[in-house]
Amino acid sequence: MSENTSRIYRVTGMTCGHCANAVSQEVGELPDVTDVHVEVASGQVTVTGTRPLTDDEISAAVHEAGYDLAS
C-alpha cells in the first residue's frame, strides 16, 4: 500500500466558491488524486494523491477549470 503525498499549489484568479468548486472538481478527476482542498482567499490548493503528481498534470487540470497556477 502506498502512502499519500500532499503538495500545495497557488492558483490565480479564484474569487468565490464556484471557482473553488471548479478547480477542486477538475483536479480531483486526475488519476490517483485522493483529496483536494481549496482556499479561495489565499489561492492555495492542497492536492493529496497516492503518488506524486507532476506540475504539468496539476497545471492542465487547473487550466481546464479556467485558472492558472502562479509562477
Question: Your description of this structure?
Answer:
With 71 residues, the chain is an alpha+beta fold. The chain has a single domain, classed as 2-Layer Sandwich (Alpha-Beta Plaits). 31% of the residues lie in helices and 32% in strands. Helix 1 crosses helix 2. The mean pLDDT is 95.
Radius of gyration: 11 Å
Strand content: 25-35%
Q: Secondary-structure element sequence?
A: EHEEHE
Q: Strand order within the widest sheet? A: 2-3-1-4
CATH topology-level fold name: Alpha-Beta Plaits
General shape? globular
Model regions low in confidence, pLDDT < 50 over at least 5 residues: none
Quick one: CATH class?
A: Alpha Beta
Per DSSP, the total helix count is: 2
Rounded mean pLDDT is: 95
Main beta sheet: strand number and arrangement?
4 strands, antiparallel
Overall number of domains? 1
Could you tell me how far the N terminus lies from the C terminus, measured between alpha carbons in angstroms? 33 Å
Secondary-structure-based class equals alpha+beta
Query: Could you say what the CATH architecture is?
Result: 2-Layer Sandwich
Total beta-strand segments? 4
Helical residue percent band = 25-40%
Features of the shown structure:
single chain, 71 residues, alpha+beta, Alpha-Beta Plaits, four-stranded antiparallel β-sheet, 2 helices, globular
Give a nutshell description of this structure.
Helix content is 31%, strand content 32%.
